[in-house]
Amino acid sequence: MSYKLGKMILPQLEEDRHGVEVVGMFFFEDNCYAMRKGDPIGERLAAVAKRKNIMLMCCDQCSYERELADKLCDGVRIGCFPTLYGALSGNMPDQVITL
Amino acid sequence: MLDLDPPHVSTLRSIYDYFQQAGRRPKNTEACTAGELVPGSAGNTAIFYLEATKHRITKVVFRCTSCMTLVALCEHLSELALGLGAGQAEKLDPALLLRLHPDIPSYLQNRAELACAALHSAISILKKGNEL
Asked: Which residues in chain B have Cβ-Cβ distances shorter than 8 Å to A61?
């Protein structure tokens, strides 16, 4: 998470050099911790997501289990697969990358 | 506000706990009275099946869409409703659920309204049949 998101993808998004339009990111398991309010990576990602209209969502079960559901960065929601599909239905991705 | 004595109301168990518990709830609706299938936001629905004996709820089964928060709230309602008469069961409301689960984000709190509406529908039908 620290390298792939924090040092590679996030700077690329911030500097508009990632190469494709990112429509959404979905976080599972312990990766949800990165989206905690106050987390340096999470706050930067939330800021760039707001600017670029990127949907950020954490798995609801993973978030409740870790007591994060109400402690995420502004604009980051929790949800399950139907929520994710619904949120992306207006701008479906051409490629899905799993990290 | 519903005034229930511990251990009937637990404030210690989380949405995550109730979601896990829901997976262990028997799904057999035999001898139960079905409420109406209640629609909610984002395509969610819920329905409760109740059995009453001597005007007390003795069995609770529910079906709902796969929203984890909704599943957990339906499960918690099922636990709360068991053993209650109509008067007390009708007092199970969204405000109570949200007090017990303050970590539910605001944009998901309407799941509590859906769960309660579905339970109240089944209670209403049982009452009409004079079973509760």
From this structure: 16, 19, 68
Enter the DSSP assignment of B59: E
Strand B45-53 to A24-27 pairing? unpaired
- Residues of chain A whose beta carbon is less than 8 angstroms from a beta carbon of chain B are 60-61, 64-65, 67, 69-70, 77-78, 80-83, 86
Structural domain of residue A50, as residue ranges? 32-87
Q: Residue B111: pLDDT band by 50, 70, 90 thresholds?
A: very high
Dihedral angle sign, alpha carbons of residues B97, B103, B105, B108: negative
Determine the Cα–Cα distance for residues B1 and B6; give it in Å rounded to an integer. 15
Give B16's contacts in chain A (Cβ within 8 Å). Answer: 61, 64-65
| Cβ contact B68–A86 (<8 Å) | no
- Give the pLDDT confidence of B25-75 residue by residue, as tens digits: 989 999 999 999 999 998 999 999 999 999 999 999 999 999 999 999 999
The answer to whether the CB of A56 falls within 8 A of the CB of A16 is: no
- Whether A36 maps to a domain, the answer reads yes
**CA–CA distance, B51 with B62 (Å, rounded to integer):** 12
Answer yes or no: is A7 within a domain.
no
How far is residue B44 CA from its own chain's centroid? Answer: 15
Residues in A closer than 8 angstroms to B42, CB to CB, are 82-83, 86
Q: How far is A65 from chain B (nearest CA, A)?
A: 6
Q: Which domains does chain B have, with CATH numbers?
A: 15-128 (3.90.1010.10)
- Say how many domains are in chain A: 1
